[in-house]
Amino acid sequence: MSLSGGAGTTIIIRLEIDTKKVTLGQIATAIGDAGGDIVAIDVTRANRQMTVRDMTVNVIDPLQSDLIAKAAGSLPGVRVVNISDQTFLLHLGGKIEMASKIPIRNRDDLSRVYTPGVARVCMAIHEDPSRAHTLTVKRNMAAVVTDGSAVLGLGNIGPLAAMPVMEGKAMLFKQFAGVDAVPICLDTQDTEEIIRTIKAIAPTFGAINLEDISSPRCFEIERRLTEELDIPVFHDDQHGTAVVMLAGLLNALKLVGKRLEECKIVFSGIGAAGIACTKILLAAGAVNIIGVDRFGVLTRGTDYGQESWNWYASNTNPNDETGGLTNVIAGADVFIGVSGPGVLKKHDVQRMAKDAIVFAMANPSPEIDPEEAEDYVRVMATGRSDYPNQINNVLCFPGMFRGVLDCRASRVTEKMKLAAARAIASIVGDEELNEQYIIPSVFNPHVVDRVKEAVIAAAYDSGVARRRRTEITQTDKTDKGDTYLVP
Ligand SMILES: NC(=O)C1=CN([C@@H]2O[C@H](COP(=O)(O)OP(=O)(O)OC[C@H]3O[C@@H](n4cnc5c(N)ncnc54)[C@H](O)[C@@H]3O)[C@@H](O)[C@H]2O)C=CC1
Ligand SMILES: CC(=O)C(=O)O
Ligand SMILES: [Mg+2]
Protein backbone atom coordinates (compact mmCIF):
# COMPACT_ATOMS: atom_id res chain seq x y z
CA MET A 1 0.00 0.00 0.00
CA SER A 2 1.39 3.39 -0.94
CA LEU A 3 1.19 6.09 1.72
CA SER A 4 2.71 8.63 -0.57
CA GLY A 5 1.26 12.00 -1.34
CA GLY A 6 1.13 13.48 -4.81
CA ALA A 7 3.00 16.58 -3.78
CA GLY A 8 6.51 15.21 -3.01
CA THR A 9 8.37 15.77 0.23
CA THR A 10 11.72 16.76 1.68
CA ILE A 11 13.86 14.34 3.66
CA ILE A 12 16.94 14.97 5.76
CA ILE A 13 19.58 12.25 5.81
CA ARG A 14 22.34 12.51 8.40
CA LEU A 15 25.50 10.83 7.12
CA GLU A 16 28.76 10.09 8.92
CA ILE A 17 31.41 10.34 6.22
CA ASP A 18 34.99 9.06 6.26
CA THR A 19 36.52 11.76 4.07
CA LYS A 20 39.55 9.57 3.27
CA LYS A 21 37.37 6.93 1.65
CA VAL A 22 34.65 8.86 -0.19
CA THR A 23 34.08 12.29 -1.69
CA LEU A 24 31.04 14.49 -1.37
CA GLY A 25 30.70 14.33 -5.15
CA GLN A 26 30.36 10.53 -5.05
CA ILE A 27 27.68 10.80 -2.37
CA ALA A 28 25.76 13.46 -4.31
CA THR A 29 25.87 11.30 -7.44
CA ALA A 30 24.56 8.24 -5.56
CA ILE A 31 21.68 10.25 -4.09
CA GLY A 32 20.88 11.82 -7.48
CA ASP A 33 20.92 8.40 -9.21
CA ALA A 34 18.45 7.11 -6.58
CA GLY A 35 16.00 9.88 -7.50
CA GLY A 36 16.83 12.51 -4.86
CA ASP A 37 17.33 16.19 -5.54
CA ILE A 38 19.81 17.65 -3.02
CA VAL A 39 18.72 21.14 -1.97
CA ALA A 40 21.02 21.79 1.02
CA ILE A 41 24.02 20.31 2.82
CA ASP A 42 24.88 21.24 6.41
CA VAL A 43 27.91 20.14 8.38
CA THR A 44 26.90 19.21 11.92
CA ARG A 45 30.30 17.87 13.11
CA ALA A 46 33.75 17.63 11.52
CA ASN A 47 37.29 16.49 12.35
CA ARG A 48 40.24 15.52 10.20
CA GLN A 49 38.90 12.18 9.12
CA MET A 50 35.18 12.29 9.73
CA THR A 51 32.37 14.71 8.94
CA VAL A 52 28.72 14.43 9.83
CA ARG A 53 26.48 16.11 7.28
CA ASP A 54 22.76 16.66 7.03
CA MET A 55 21.72 16.28 3.40
CA THR A 56 18.36 17.88 2.65
CA VAL A 57 16.87 16.08 -0.32
CA ASN A 58 13.63 16.58 -2.25
CA VAL A 59 11.88 13.37 -3.29
CA ILE A 60 8.70 12.77 -5.27
CA ASP A 61 7.57 9.87 -3.07
CA PRO A 62 8.49 9.42 0.64
CA LEU A 63 9.06 5.72 -0.09
CA GLN A 64 12.09 6.77 -2.17
CA SER A 65 13.88 7.78 1.03
CA ASP A 66 14.78 4.14 1.73
CA LEU A 67 16.35 3.78 -1.73
CA ILE A 68 18.31 6.99 -1.27
CA ALA A 69 19.54 5.98 2.17
CA LYS A 70 20.55 2.57 0.81
CA ALA A 71 22.40 4.14 -2.13
CA ALA A 72 24.33 6.55 0.11
CA GLY A 73 24.93 3.95 2.85
CA SER A 74 26.38 1.42 0.41
CA LEU A 75 29.28 3.71 -0.47
CA PRO A 76 32.53 2.88 1.34
CA GLY A 77 33.11 5.16 4.34
CA VAL A 78 29.48 6.31 4.63
CA ARG A 79 27.22 5.47 7.56
CA VAL A 80 23.58 6.57 7.59
CA VAL A 81 23.03 7.95 11.11
CA ASN A 82 19.44 8.99 10.77
CA ILE A 83 16.75 9.77 8.24
CA SER A 84 13.75 11.99 8.81
CA ASP A 85 11.30 14.00 6.76
CA GLN A 86 9.24 17.12 7.27
CA THR A 87 6.21 15.12 8.32
CA PHE A 88 8.14 13.23 11.01
CA LEU A 89 9.92 16.40 12.13
CA LEU A 90 6.67 18.21 12.78
CA HIS A 91 5.49 15.31 14.92
CA LEU A 92 8.48 15.53 17.26
CA GLY A 93 7.15 15.78 20.81
CA GLY A 94 3.55 15.72 19.57
CA LYS A 95 1.52 18.42 17.85
CA ILE A 96 -0.52 20.01 20.63
CA GLU A 97 -0.03 21.35 24.15
CA MET A 98 -2.12 22.59 27.06
CA ALA A 99 -1.95 26.32 27.83
CA SER A 100 -3.30 28.43 30.71
CA LYS A 101 -5.61 31.32 29.92
CA ILE A 102 -4.52 33.32 32.96
CA PRO A 103 -0.97 33.90 34.27
CA ILE A 104 -0.26 33.24 37.94
CA ARG A 105 1.84 36.29 38.77
CA ASN A 106 1.62 36.47 42.55
CA ARG A 107 0.13 34.91 45.70
CA ASP A 108 -3.10 36.78 45.12
CA ASP A 109 -3.58 35.19 41.69
CA LEU A 110 -2.58 31.85 43.18
CA SER A 111 -5.20 32.12 45.88
CA ARG A 112 -7.88 32.70 43.23
CA VAL A 113 -7.01 30.10 40.61
CA TYR A 114 -6.22 27.56 43.31
CA THR A 115 -6.93 27.20 47.00
CA PRO A 116 -8.55 28.89 48.86
CA GLY A 117 -10.49 30.89 46.20
CA VAL A 118 -11.23 27.91 43.98
CA ALA A 119 -13.19 26.26 46.80
CA ARG A 120 -16.09 28.70 46.45
CA VAL A 121 -16.31 27.91 42.76
CA CYS A 122 -16.27 24.17 43.49
CA MET A 123 -19.14 24.59 45.93
CA ALA A 124 -21.12 26.70 43.46
CA ILE A 125 -20.93 23.81 40.99
CA HIS A 126 -21.74 21.32 43.73
CA GLU A 127 -24.94 23.24 44.45
CA ASP A 128 -25.85 23.64 40.76
CA PRO A 129 -24.05 21.16 38.45
CA SER A 130 -25.14 23.11 35.34
CA ARG A 131 -22.61 25.75 36.39
CA ALA A 132 -19.85 23.37 35.32
CA HIS A 133 -20.65 24.57 31.79
CA THR A 134 -19.87 28.17 32.69
CA LEU A 135 -17.15 27.80 35.29
CA THR A 136 -14.97 25.02 33.87
CA VAL A 137 -13.42 23.89 30.61
CA LYS A 138 -16.42 21.60 30.09
CA ARG A 139 -18.07 24.38 28.12
CA ASN A 140 -15.54 24.26 25.33
CA MET A 141 -13.89 20.88 25.65
CA ALA A 142 -14.39 17.71 23.64
CA ALA A 143 -12.78 14.30 24.06
CA VAL A 144 -11.50 12.61 20.91
CA VAL A 145 -11.68 8.97 21.94
CA THR A 146 -10.37 5.97 20.04
CA ASP A 147 -9.45 2.38 20.74
CA GLY A 148 -7.16 2.29 17.69
CA SER A 149 -9.21 -0.41 16.00
CA ALA A 150 -9.94 1.25 12.60
CA VAL A 151 -7.42 4.05 12.25
CA LEU A 152 -8.03 5.74 8.90
CA GLY A 153 -7.84 2.80 6.51
CA LEU A 154 -4.77 1.43 8.29
CA GLY A 155 -6.80 -1.06 10.31
CA ASN A 156 -6.39 -2.19 13.91
CA ILE A 157 -3.06 -0.56 14.71
CA GLY A 158 -3.83 0.03 18.40
CA PRO A 159 -4.08 3.05 20.68
CA LEU A 160 -0.46 4.22 20.67
CA ALA A 161 -0.19 4.26 16.89
CA ALA A 162 -3.57 6.01 16.67
CA MET A 163 -2.34 8.97 18.69
CA PRO A 164 -0.98 11.09 15.78
CA VAL A 165 -4.39 10.98 14.08
CA MET A 166 -6.18 11.95 17.30
CA GLU A 167 -3.72 14.81 17.90
CA GLY A 168 -4.37 15.91 14.32
CA LYS A 169 -8.13 15.90 14.93
CA ALA A 170 -7.57 17.96 18.09
CA MET A 171 -5.58 20.51 16.06
CA LEU A 172 -8.40 20.77 13.52
CA PHE A 173 -10.99 21.25 16.27
CA LYS A 174 -8.96 24.10 17.72
CA GLN A 175 -7.84 25.84 14.55
CA PHE A 176 -11.14 25.75 12.71
CA ALA A 177 -13.67 26.06 15.53
CA GLY A 178 -11.85 27.12 18.70
CA VAL A 179 -12.87 23.85 20.39
CA ASP A 180 -10.38 22.47 22.92
CA ALA A 181 -10.11 18.77 22.15
CA VAL A 182 -8.21 16.16 24.14
CA PRO A 183 -6.97 12.99 22.40
CA ILE A 184 -7.74 9.91 24.48
CA CYS A 185 -6.43 6.56 23.22
CA LEU A 186 -7.85 3.65 25.17
CA ASP A 187 -5.95 0.45 25.82
CA THR A 188 -9.03 -1.71 25.47
CA GLN A 189 -11.24 -2.87 22.60
CA ASP A 190 -13.89 -4.30 24.87
CA THR A 191 -17.24 -2.63 24.23
CA GLU A 192 -18.35 -2.56 27.88
CA GLU A 193 -15.00 -1.31 29.12
CA ILE A 194 -14.95 1.47 26.51
CA ILE A 195 -18.47 2.56 27.51
CA ARG A 196 -17.56 2.47 31.21
CA THR A 197 -14.38 4.44 30.67
CA ILE A 198 -15.97 7.14 28.55
CA LYS A 199 -18.81 7.51 31.05
CA ALA A 200 -16.26 7.86 33.83
CA ILE A 201 -14.36 10.68 32.10
CA ALA A 202 -17.46 12.44 30.72
CA PRO A 203 -17.79 15.07 33.50
CA THR A 204 -14.75 16.88 32.08
CA PHE A 205 -16.23 17.27 28.61
CA GLY A 206 -19.05 19.09 26.85
CA ALA A 207 -19.13 16.54 24.02
CA ILE A 208 -17.53 13.26 22.98
CA ASN A 209 -16.10 12.60 19.52
CA LEU A 210 -15.65 8.86 18.94
CA GLU A 211 -12.97 8.28 16.32
CA ASP A 212 -11.69 5.30 14.38
CA ILE A 213 -13.51 2.64 16.41
CA SER A 214 -14.30 -0.25 14.08
CA SER A 215 -17.73 -1.55 13.25
CA PRO A 216 -19.87 -3.17 14.51
CA ARG A 217 -18.70 -2.31 18.06
CA CYS A 218 -18.89 1.40 17.26
CA PHE A 219 -22.68 1.23 16.83
CA GLU A 220 -23.36 -0.24 20.27
CA ILE A 221 -20.80 2.06 21.93
CA GLU A 222 -22.35 5.18 20.43
CA ARG A 223 -25.94 4.08 21.07
CA ARG A 224 -25.31 3.25 24.72
CA LEU A 225 -23.31 6.40 25.41
CA THR A 226 -25.99 8.55 23.76
CA GLU A 227 -28.61 6.94 26.00
CA GLU A 228 -26.56 7.08 29.17
CA LEU A 229 -24.81 10.46 28.94
CA ASP A 230 -26.33 13.95 28.88
CA ILE A 231 -23.77 15.35 26.41
CA PRO A 232 -23.58 14.74 22.65
CA VAL A 233 -21.72 11.64 21.52
CA PHE A 234 -20.80 11.76 17.86
CA HIS A 235 -18.98 9.03 16.00
CA ASP A 236 -17.14 11.09 13.45
CA ASP A 237 -16.44 8.22 11.03
CA GLN A 238 -20.15 7.53 10.84
CA HIS A 239 -21.86 10.87 10.95
CA GLY A 240 -19.16 13.38 10.04
CA THR A 241 -18.39 11.32 6.97
CA ALA A 242 -22.07 10.90 6.08
CA VAL A 243 -22.76 14.64 6.38
CA VAL A 244 -19.87 15.61 4.11
CA MET A 245 -20.54 12.82 1.61
CA LEU A 246 -24.17 13.95 1.31
CA ALA A 247 -23.12 17.57 0.84
CA GLY A 248 -20.72 16.57 -1.94
CA LEU A 249 -23.20 14.25 -3.59
CA LEU A 250 -26.03 16.80 -3.61
CA ASN A 251 -23.76 19.22 -5.45
CA ALA A 252 -22.32 16.59 -7.80
CA LEU A 253 -25.83 15.47 -8.78
CA LYS A 254 -26.84 19.07 -9.37
CA LEU A 255 -23.85 19.40 -11.68
CA VAL A 256 -24.58 16.29 -13.72
CA GLY A 257 -28.33 16.89 -13.70
CA LYS A 258 -29.40 13.62 -12.01
CA ARG A 259 -31.91 13.04 -9.21
CA LEU A 260 -30.83 11.15 -6.10
CA GLU A 261 -34.06 9.13 -6.18
CA GLU A 262 -33.20 7.77 -9.64
CA CYS A 263 -29.53 6.99 -9.13
CA LYS A 264 -27.96 3.58 -8.74
CA ILE A 265 -25.46 4.00 -5.90
CA VAL A 266 -22.84 1.36 -5.12
CA PHE A 267 -20.99 1.32 -1.79
CA SER A 268 -17.72 -0.44 -1.11
CA GLY A 269 -17.08 -0.99 2.63
CA ILE A 270 -20.11 -1.60 4.81
CA GLY A 271 -18.51 -0.50 8.07
CA ALA A 272 -18.96 2.55 10.27
CA ALA A 273 -18.73 5.06 7.41
CA GLY A 274 -20.54 2.92 4.82
CA ILE A 275 -23.59 2.24 6.99
CA ALA A 276 -23.95 5.83 8.18
CA CYS A 277 -23.53 7.20 4.63
CA THR A 278 -26.18 4.77 3.41
CA LYS A 279 -28.60 5.80 6.17
CA ILE A 280 -28.26 9.48 5.42
CA LEU A 281 -28.76 8.86 1.68
CA LEU A 282 -31.91 6.82 2.34
CA ALA A 283 -33.17 9.64 4.58
CA ALA A 284 -32.43 12.11 1.77
CA GLY A 285 -34.47 10.09 -0.74
CA ALA A 286 -32.09 7.55 -2.35
CA VAL A 287 -33.76 4.29 -3.34
CA ASN A 288 -31.33 2.06 -5.20
CA ILE A 289 -28.28 1.54 -2.95
CA ILE A 290 -26.17 -1.61 -3.18
CA GLY A 291 -23.51 -2.47 -0.61
CA VAL A 292 -20.41 -4.56 -1.22
CA ASP A 293 -17.99 -5.73 1.46
CA ARG A 294 -15.11 -8.21 1.30
CA PHE A 295 -17.44 -11.17 0.75
CA GLY A 296 -19.45 -9.51 -2.05
CA VAL A 297 -22.84 -7.86 -2.36
CA LEU A 298 -25.17 -7.74 0.67
CA THR A 299 -28.40 -9.44 -0.26
CA ARG A 300 -31.84 -9.64 1.32
CA GLY A 301 -32.64 -12.77 3.27
CA THR A 302 -29.03 -13.66 4.09
CA ASP A 303 -28.12 -13.86 7.79
CA TYR A 304 -24.77 -12.16 8.24
CA GLY A 305 -24.61 -12.88 11.96
CA GLN A 306 -24.33 -9.16 12.59
CA GLU A 307 -27.23 -6.80 13.25
CA SER A 308 -25.80 -3.93 11.20
CA TRP A 309 -25.25 -6.06 8.08
CA ASN A 310 -28.67 -7.71 8.45
CA TRP A 311 -30.23 -4.25 8.64
CA TYR A 312 -28.25 -3.22 5.57
CA ALA A 313 -29.30 -6.25 3.58
CA SER A 314 -32.98 -5.70 4.32
CA ASN A 315 -32.96 -1.99 3.54
CA THR A 316 -30.88 -1.84 0.36
CA ASN A 317 -30.41 -3.68 -2.93
CA PRO A 318 -34.09 -3.47 -4.01
CA ASN A 319 -33.40 -5.33 -7.27
CA ASP A 320 -31.66 -8.24 -5.51
CA GLU A 321 -28.41 -7.94 -7.43
CA THR A 322 -25.73 -10.48 -6.57
CA GLY A 323 -22.00 -11.10 -7.08
CA GLY A 324 -19.16 -8.70 -6.39
CA LEU A 325 -18.29 -5.09 -7.09
CA THR A 326 -17.47 -5.84 -10.72
CA ASN A 327 -21.01 -7.17 -11.26
CA VAL A 328 -23.01 -4.43 -9.58
CA ILE A 329 -20.94 -1.49 -10.73
CA ALA A 330 -22.37 -1.87 -14.25
CA GLY A 331 -24.66 1.08 -14.95
CA ALA A 332 -24.06 2.67 -11.53
CA ASP A 333 -24.37 6.45 -11.39
CA VAL A 334 -22.44 6.80 -8.15
CA PHE A 335 -19.66 4.86 -6.42
CA ILE A 336 -18.91 5.60 -2.77
CA GLY A 337 -15.77 3.96 -1.42
CA VAL A 338 -15.20 3.72 2.33
CA SER A 339 -13.23 0.48 2.34
CA GLY A 340 -9.59 0.36 1.33
CA PRO A 341 -7.04 1.09 -1.38
CA GLY A 342 -7.34 -0.10 -4.97
CA VAL A 343 -10.73 -1.81 -4.64
CA LEU A 344 -12.18 -0.10 -7.73
CA LYS A 345 -10.48 -0.89 -11.04
CA LYS A 346 -10.32 1.08 -14.25
CA HIS A 347 -12.49 -1.51 -16.02
CA ASP A 348 -15.15 -1.08 -13.30
CA VAL A 349 -15.29 2.68 -13.78
CA GLN A 350 -15.54 2.25 -17.54
CA ARG A 351 -18.77 0.29 -17.02
CA MET A 352 -20.50 2.92 -14.90
CA ALA A 353 -23.33 5.05 -16.31
CA LYS A 354 -22.69 8.26 -18.27
CA ASP A 355 -21.55 11.18 -16.10
CA ALA A 356 -20.42 8.81 -13.35
CA ILE A 357 -19.59 10.15 -9.89
CA VAL A 358 -16.82 8.44 -7.90
CA PHE A 359 -16.13 9.28 -4.26
CA ALA A 360 -13.09 7.14 -3.38
CA MET A 361 -12.88 8.15 0.26
CA ALA A 362 -10.58 5.56 1.89
CA ASN A 363 -7.64 7.18 3.66
CA PRO A 364 -4.80 7.56 3.14
CA SER A 365 -5.03 5.66 -0.15
CA PRO A 366 -8.31 5.80 -2.09
CA GLU A 367 -10.23 2.94 -3.75
CA ILE A 368 -8.87 4.17 -7.09
CA ASP A 369 -6.25 6.76 -7.96
CA PRO A 370 -7.87 9.85 -9.48
CA GLU A 371 -5.38 9.69 -12.38
CA GLU A 372 -6.65 6.23 -13.27
CA ALA A 373 -10.34 7.16 -13.13
CA GLU A 374 -10.40 10.70 -14.45
CA ASP A 375 -10.93 9.85 -18.14
CA TYR A 376 -14.07 7.83 -17.37
CA VAL A 377 -15.87 9.77 -14.64
CA ARG A 378 -17.45 13.19 -14.62
CA VAL A 379 -16.86 13.93 -10.93
CA MET A 380 -14.03 12.43 -8.90
CA ALA A 381 -13.48 13.05 -5.19
CA THR A 382 -11.21 11.55 -2.52
CA GLY A 383 -10.67 12.01 1.22
CA ARG A 384 -7.25 13.55 0.67
CA SER A 385 -6.10 17.15 0.79
CA ASP A 386 -3.77 16.86 -2.19
CA TYR A 387 -6.51 16.40 -4.83
CA PRO A 388 -9.53 18.57 -5.69
CA ASN A 389 -12.91 17.74 -4.07
CA GLN A 390 -11.79 16.57 -0.64
CA ILE A 391 -14.71 14.69 0.91
CA ASN A 392 -13.46 14.49 4.45
CA ASN A 393 -15.26 14.65 7.77
CA VAL A 394 -13.07 17.60 8.74
CA LEU A 395 -15.62 19.73 6.88
CA CYS A 396 -18.22 18.70 9.45
CA PHE A 397 -16.89 17.97 12.92
CA PRO A 398 -15.41 21.38 13.84
CA GLY A 399 -18.65 23.26 13.03
CA MET A 400 -20.82 20.46 14.41
CA PHE A 401 -19.04 20.55 17.79
CA ARG A 402 -18.92 24.36 17.84
CA GLY A 403 -22.68 24.28 17.37
CA VAL A 404 -23.50 21.64 19.99
CA LEU A 405 -21.20 23.23 22.57
CA ASP A 406 -22.57 26.73 21.97
CA CYS A 407 -26.22 25.72 22.37
CA ARG A 408 -25.31 23.08 24.97
CA ALA A 409 -27.09 20.36 23.07
CA SER A 410 -27.77 17.10 24.89
CA ARG A 411 -27.41 15.04 21.69
CA VAL A 412 -27.04 15.19 17.92
CA THR A 413 -30.25 14.51 15.98
CA GLU A 414 -30.83 13.46 12.35
CA LYS A 415 -32.19 16.94 11.69
CA MET A 416 -28.89 18.48 12.84
CA LYS A 417 -26.88 16.21 10.53
CA LEU A 418 -29.04 16.95 7.49
CA ALA A 419 -28.87 20.67 8.27
CA ALA A 420 -25.07 20.47 8.45
CA ALA A 421 -24.91 18.66 5.09
CA ARG A 422 -27.11 21.26 3.39
CA ALA A 423 -25.07 24.06 4.95
CA ILE A 424 -21.82 22.64 3.55
CA ALA A 425 -23.35 22.09 0.12
CA SER A 426 -24.75 25.64 0.04
CA ILE A 427 -21.31 27.19 0.27
CA VAL A 428 -20.59 26.24 -3.34
CA GLY A 429 -22.70 28.68 -5.38
CA ASP A 430 -24.39 27.55 -8.61
CA GLU A 431 -22.08 29.79 -10.62
CA GLU A 432 -19.00 28.25 -8.99
CA LEU A 433 -20.06 24.62 -9.19
CA ASN A 434 -17.88 22.56 -11.53
CA GLU A 435 -16.27 19.11 -11.79
CA GLN A 436 -13.28 20.21 -9.70
CA TYR A 437 -15.33 22.12 -7.14
CA ILE A 438 -18.33 20.31 -5.69
CA ILE A 439 -17.39 20.81 -2.05
CA PRO A 440 -15.78 23.77 -0.28
CA SER A 441 -12.21 23.59 0.92
CA VAL A 442 -11.70 23.06 4.62
CA PHE A 443 -9.94 26.45 4.54
CA ASN A 444 -13.07 28.16 3.26
CA PRO A 445 -13.77 30.65 6.08
CA HIS A 446 -17.56 30.16 5.83
CA VAL A 447 -17.64 26.41 6.49
CA VAL A 448 -17.52 26.34 10.28
CA ASP A 449 -19.89 29.26 10.80
CA ARG A 450 -22.47 27.92 8.34
CA VAL A 451 -22.37 24.43 9.86
CA LYS A 452 -22.53 25.86 13.37
CA GLU A 453 -25.52 28.11 12.59
CA ALA A 454 -27.37 25.27 10.85
CA VAL A 455 -26.65 22.84 13.70
CA ILE A 456 -27.79 25.30 16.36
CA ALA A 457 -31.02 26.11 14.51
CA ALA A 458 -31.75 22.39 14.06
CA ALA A 459 -30.88 21.69 17.72
CA TYR A 460 -33.54 24.18 18.84
CA ASP A 461 -36.01 22.69 16.34
CA SER A 462 -35.24 19.23 17.69
CA GLY A 463 -35.66 20.39 21.29
CA VAL A 464 -32.17 19.28 22.38
CA ALA A 465 -30.58 22.72 22.97
CA ARG A 466 -30.30 23.49 26.66
CA ARG A 467 -29.12 27.08 26.54
CA ARG A 468 -31.38 30.07 26.06
CA ARG A 469 -31.02 31.16 22.45
CA THR A 470 -30.35 34.77 23.44
CA GLU A 471 -27.33 33.68 25.48
CA ILE A 472 -25.44 32.48 22.43
CA THR A 473 -23.01 35.11 21.26
CA GLN A 474 -20.42 35.38 18.53
CA THR A 475 -17.71 35.37 21.15
CA ASP A 476 -18.33 31.73 21.99
CA LYS A 477 -15.79 30.78 19.34
CA THR A 478 -13.09 32.41 21.42
CA ASP A 479 -14.63 31.03 24.60
CA LYS A 480 -15.36 34.34 26.28
CA GLY A 481 -19.10 34.34 25.79
CA ASP A 482 -20.58 33.63 29.18
CA THR A 483 -20.84 35.96 32.07
CA TYR A 484 -21.38 34.53 35.50
CA LEU A 485 -22.61 36.31 38.58
CA VAL A 486 -21.03 35.41 41.89
CA PRO A 487 -23.63 33.49 43.90
N1 LIG B 1 -12.92 10.58 3.81
C1 LIG B 1 -13.42 10.53 5.02
O1 LIG B 1 -13.87 11.53 5.59
C2 LIG B 1 -13.47 9.24 5.73
C3 LIG B 1 -12.92 8.13 5.21
N2 LIG B 1 -13.00 6.95 5.90
C4 LIG B 1 -12.30 5.81 5.32
O2 LIG B 1 -13.22 4.77 5.10
C5 LIG B 1 -12.59 3.53 5.36
C6 LIG B 1 -13.43 2.71 6.33
O3 LIG B 1 -13.51 3.36 7.57
P1 LIG B 1 -14.55 2.86 8.68
O4 LIG B 1 -15.89 2.69 8.09
O5 LIG B 1 -14.38 3.76 9.84
O6 LIG B 1 -13.93 1.43 9.04
P2 LIG B 1 -14.66 0.07 9.45
O7 LIG B 1 -13.57 -0.81 9.91
O8 LIG B 1 -15.80 0.33 10.37
O9 LIG B 1 -15.29 -0.48 8.09
C7 LIG B 1 -14.53 -0.82 6.99
C8 LIG B 1 -15.35 -1.80 6.17
O10 LIG B 1 -14.73 -1.91 4.90
C9 LIG B 1 -14.63 -3.28 4.59
N3 LIG B 1 -13.52 -3.47 3.67
C10 LIG B 1 -12.21 -3.33 3.93
N4 LIG B 1 -11.50 -3.63 2.83
C11 LIG B 1 -12.39 -3.96 1.88
C12 LIG B 1 -12.27 -4.36 0.54
N5 LIG B 1 -11.08 -4.51 -0.02
N6 LIG B 1 -13.40 -4.59 -0.17
C13 LIG B 1 -14.62 -4.46 0.39
N7 LIG B 1 -14.78 -4.09 1.68
C14 LIG B 1 -13.68 -3.84 2.41
C15 LIG B 1 -14.43 -3.98 5.93
O11 LIG B 1 -14.76 -5.35 5.88
C16 LIG B 1 -15.39 -3.18 6.80
O12 LIG B 1 -16.70 -3.69 6.77
C17 LIG B 1 -11.19 3.85 5.84
O13 LIG B 1 -10.29 3.77 4.76
C18 LIG B 1 -11.28 5.28 6.29
O14 LIG B 1 -10.07 5.97 6.14
C19 LIG B 1 -13.64 6.83 7.09
C20 LIG B 1 -14.19 7.92 7.67
C21 LIG B 1 -14.10 9.24 7.05
C1 LIG C 1 -11.02 11.03 7.90
C2 LIG C 1 -11.21 9.97 8.87
O1 LIG C 1 -11.74 10.20 9.95
C3 LIG C 1 -10.79 8.64 8.55
O2 LIG C 1 -10.31 8.39 7.44
O3 LIG C 1 -10.91 7.76 9.42
MG1 LIG D 1 -11.64 8.57 11.31
Question: What's the arrangement of secondary structure elements?
Answer:
Elements: E1 9-18, H1 24-33, E2 37-46, E3 50-59, H2 64-73, E4 78-85, H3 86-89, H4 107-113, H5 117-127, H6 132-135, E5 141-146, H7 158-177, E6 180-185, H8 191-201, E7 207-210, H9 217-228, E8 233-235, H10 236-256, E9 264-268, H11 272-284, E10 288-293, E11 296-297, H12 307-315, H13 325-328, E12 334-337, H14 346-350, E13 357-360, H15 370-373, E14 379-382, H16 397-406, H17 414-426, H18 447-462
Parallel strand pairs: 5-6, 5-7, 7-8, 9-10, 9-12, 12-13, 13-14
Antiparallel strand pairs: 1-3, 1-4, 2-3, 10-11
Helix pairs in contact: 1-2, 7-16, 8-9, 10-11, 10-17, 16-18, 17-18
The chain binds 1,4-dihydronicotinamide adenine dinucleotide, pyruvic acid and magnesium ion.
Mind telling me the CATH superfamily name of the domain at 107-237? Answer: Malic enzyme, N-terminal domain
Question: How much of the sequence is in beta strands?
Answer: 15-25%
Give the class-level CATH name of the domain at 107-237: Alpha Beta
Helix content: 25-40%
Task: Write down how many β-strands occur, each being a DSSP E stretch of 2 or more residues.
Answer: 14
CATH architecture of the domain at 107-237: 3-Layer(aba) Sandwich
Ligands bound, unique: 1,4-dihydronicotinamide adenine dinucleotide, pyruvic acid, magnesium ion
CATH topology of the domain at 107-237, by name, is Rossmann fold
Main beta-sheet annotation:
6 strands, mixed
Strand order of the largest sheet: 11-10-9-12-13-14
Low-confidence stretches: 1-6, 475-487
Average pLDDT score = 93
Counting helices, strands and paired strands, the structural category is alpha/beta
